[in-house]
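I am still getting used to backbone structure tokens and would like to learn alongside you. Please make up or recall a protein chain and show it to me in full. Would you write everything just below, so we can both look at the same thing?
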Amino acid sequence: MGNLSVIGGRVKGFKLQSVPGSGTRPIMAMVKAALFNIVSPYVLDSSWLDLFAGTGSVGIEALSRGAAMARFVENSNQAVKTIQANLEHTALSEWGEVRRKNVFSVLSEQADRQFDFVYIAPPQFKDIWSRALLALDQNPSWLLDESWVIVQIDKVEYKDQPLENLELFRRKSYGSTELVFYMVKDGVV
């Protein structure tokens, strides 16, 4: 079960709505805290692309901690409504963009902007994380030369990926959840 509240920054303590049903898996508080301990030196004024955004918890956490903007991509109408409600409740709507679209359609398009962080947390055990990472690797127009791509998976799902433009630089496990960090290879973007 995820902690559906903001754990740091200007809207710390705000409770977030969950998406009705069992189609999303909110990030556990321990994992979210660990993630933001790692990225905290780089969050201020950053931009986030939150893919398979669910409740919007990760992007909203980034906004609460000073990110300049977050774009949430989610295919589920229920999840889109939940993200919009959570942005309104936290008064962060001004800095959030919510797109109801298939993540793979988005990643196949030419980017309209580049992001400092891309967060990928899809449904588990379907190899969707791998497909999304490979799609981003093949279309690095979404990335800056210092961008990080962070994948949240069950640790049994991890496998090495044949990447051209991204490289693995960190893996951290928290219980059964693993965060896998990639960065853009030198000279790619």
User: Anything to note?
Assistant: The two ends are 37 Å apart (CA to CA). Residues 29-184 form a domain with the Rossmann fold fold (CATH 3.40.50.150).
